[in-house]
Design goal:
- It is a single chain.
- With 239 residues, the protein is α/β, with parallel strands linked by helices.
- The protein has one domain: Rossmann fold (3-Layer(aba) Sandwich).
- Helices cover 43% and strands 17% of the residues.
- It has eight helices and seven strands; from the N terminus they run βαβαβαβαβααβααβ.
- Strands 3-2-1-4-5-6-7 form a seven-stranded parallel sheet, with helices on both faces.
- β4, α4 and β5 form a beta-alpha-beta unit.
- α1 packs across α8 and α4 runs parallel beside α6.
- It is globular and about 50 Å long.
- Bound molecules: NADPH dihydro-nicotinamide-adenine-dinucleotide phosphate (NDP).
- NADPH dihydro-nicotinamide-adenine-dinucleotide phosphate binds next to α1, β2 and α4.
Length: 239
């Protein structure tokens, strides 16, 4: 039977790979994002239903609800990103506060607000999966703090959803090449150092993350909840 799936930020990168996996199975998939153009393109390619939605906005989430399947089997909280690549230094406290809040909103509030908004639709036996980051463990300013907060918040969520037969987990990628996340933001040296930090000697691709999501959304993972699944090419195995 086709499952009902929501992939936030599903028009590009990791979210698009996740959406492709589920539409490929014949599931009913809704993808979201703030920009209409990439959503339209992704919808054409995958057959997913695309809805413009800013997941930091409660009003936008309420408008999203009628677009979703009545029964949501899998929620993938993938929307996010690092908003302080060019964080101003010095004593511009207002700019610092703006950047800090933007990271928390983009990576933590999005997931919490979305999960809360769709809670009544989540089907027994379903799965909530957040896309975290290795930055949660390695330290990466406000972005890393937001992703660490996401993993911590998820533990409580797993406790709340467990009695309903729902699981809640985090997939935590390392460096995933060729998404908008790092595009035009890395020097060759920085890219090489990220690859050198892996045990496998190559960056991940969005499909690596989609594979982990697919597993956590499958019946094989029904007894796994409140966990973080690292998909980082063995970054913790290198010295
Ligand atoms: P992308 O920039 O391609 O994907 C992010 C997606 O999220 C975009 O489609 C973006 O669309 C959407 N998005 C961002 N904010 C919002 C919002 N407020 N509401 C709705 N949609 C939003 O990069 P990735 O695919 O790499 O990133 C996906 C996830 O993976 C992110 O959570 C990121 O933090 C995480 N990650 C990525 C890593 C990497 O190396 N690439 C490593 C570790 C984690 P739009 O701008 O149109 O809203």
């Amino acid at each position: 039977m086709p499952r009902g799936i929501l992939v936030t930020g599903g028009a590009t990168g990791i979210g698009l790979a996740v959406a492709r996996y589920f539409t490929g199975r014949g599931d009913t998939v809704v993808i979201t994002g703030r920009r209409a153009a990439p959503l339209e393109e992704a919808a054409k390619e995958t057959g997913a239903h695309a809805v413009v939605c800013d997941h930091t906005e409660p009003g936008a989430l309420l408008r999203l609800l009628p677009e979703l399947p009545d029964r949501l089997d899998v929620l993938v909280n993938n929307a996010g990103g690092q908003t302080d690549f060019d964080s101003p230094g010095g004593d511009d406290l207002a700019a610092y506060a703006r950047d800090f809040r933007a990271n928390l909103d983009a990576n933590l509030l999005t997931a919490a607000l979305t999960t809360r908004a769709v809670d009544a639709r989540l089907a027994d036996g379903g799965a909530v999966i957040h896309i975290g980051s290795i930055a949660a463990d390695k330290g990466s300013g406000a972005y890393g703090a937001a992703k660490a907060g996401l993993a911590s918040w998820n533990v409580g969520l797993a406790g709340l959803l467990g009695p309903r037969g729902l699981t809640a987990n985090v997939v935590s990628p390392g460096y995933i090449a060729d998404t908008e996340f790092f595009r035009d933001k890395l020097t060759t040296e920085r890219r090489d150092s990220l690859v050198a930090a892996t045990a496998v000697g190559r960056p991940g691709v969005p499909e690596d993350v989609a594979g982990a999501v697919a597993f956590l959304a499958s019946p094989a993972a029904r007894n796994i909840t409140g966990q973080v699944l690292n998909v980082n090419g063995g970054e913790y195995a290198t010295r």
